[in-house]
Amino acid sequence: MSEVSAFQKSLLDEVRSEGEKFGEDIKHLADFTSGCKKFEPWIEKAEAKKAAGMRKPKNLQEAEDSLVDAQVISATGLPLRSREKSPKTFSCESRPDR
Fold this sequence. Notes:
Elements: H1 2-52, H2 60-83
Helix pairs in contact: 1-2
């Protein structure tokens, strides 16, 4: 009877340890998903600007406007880059639902 009790206890311990691992995976998935949601609006805007292309300025005013646009894009991207832990952590391209 003690063998059965010991085996049952070992199974229970194994189930608990696997459950903890599963809970940790859920936490990481939630972090990943929220990270992607923070990046997606910025990525969509950047893709739209990329599709529009960069125009060659015809005068100094257009060149200054282009510079301001580039500085705005850079400034909005900096806070996102500071949140990034590693390239693989927030790689939205690897999401299975895309």
